[in-house]
Amino acid sequence: MRLDKFLAEAGIGTRSSVKILLKKGLVTVAGQVQKDGRFQVDKNSVEVCFDGKPLIYQEFYYYLLNKPQGVVSATKDNIFKTVVQLLDKKDFREDIFPVGRLDKNTEGLLILTNDGALGHDLTQPKKHVEKEYFARIDGKVTNEIIDKFATGLTLKNGEKVKPGELYSEKVYESDTQSGWMSEIRIVIHEGKFHQVKRMFEAVEMYVLYLKRIRMGNLKLDKNLKLGDYRILTIEEIESLKK
Ligand code: URA
């Protein structure tokens, strides 16, 4: 790859600022000063130093974001703030994207990465990656409703969904339309558009609050505040790839 690309990906600066640093003679390749950004390097075998310090080439970046409401799961949007705009300047890269989507008013676990293969794998319908959500529902989630979810529902548009595991955690009187509120957890094995909300609509109930708490083996980190993110650990990345 080109030396200027290598340096930019190693986080030294943008392609144009890297040019200036190269001109200053601050970069060595295998011990020789190299001033030409077009110089070809083998990222796996060559030692590139900046200001005397060896650089480690990193191709892929993985972040776990606790998505707040009001931001959209996209890389660009003309109206709303996007999830990639929540990254600090030092972590932002043009090629980072969200893995799958959460609705604008849904909170919780979202992976941001520039690893296209992993993103594709985790969202492929055939892979059935489990997703777990916590939700507050207007109404009483009864055993009858839990059974309906367990056998597989038909959505209002006639589309069938795979069985989902629904757990009712708390039911209490509330000033909702029905007079009741249920707190639930649900595990689904697909990722259809607005799936959780549409599953509840199929049983005439409404989702008032939705938060994703798990994707595959990856759980939402309780220490992450809404809008915050952290780097995924090697173990977490490996477990997502399994
Ligand atoms: N299901 C939904 O309805 N919305 C989401 O954001 C995720 C799952």
From TrEMBL:
| SMART domains recorded | S4
Query: Is Transmembrane helix one of the keywords UniProt gives this record?
Result: no
Q: Name one GO biological process term.
A: enzyme-directed rRNA pseudouridine synthesis
Q: Does the keyword Transferase apply?
A: no
Entry keyword set: Isomerase, RNA-binding
Q: Which InterPro entries match?
A: PsdUridine_s_RsuA/RluB/E/F_cat, PsdUridine_synth_cat_dom_sf, PsdUridine_synth_RsuA/RluA, PsdUridine_synth_RsuA/RluB/E/F, PsdUridine_synth_RsuA/RluB_CS, RsuA_PseudoU_synthase, S4_RNA-bd, S4_RNA-bd_sf
On the tree of life, the source organism's domain of life is Bacteria
- Name a GO CC annotation attached to this entry: cytosol
Residue span, RNA-binding S4 domain: 1-60
Q: Which GO terms describe its molecular function?
A: RNA binding; rRNA pseudouridine synthase activity
Its Enzyme Commission number(s) read 5.4.99.-
**SUPFAM superfamilies given in the database record:** Alpha-L RNA-binding motif, Pseudouridine synthase
Q: Name one Pfam family in it.
A: S4
Q: Which family does it belong to?
A: Belongs to the pseudouridine synthase RsuA family.
This chain's protein is named Pseudouridine synthase
**Which species does this protein come from?**
Lactococcus allomyrinae
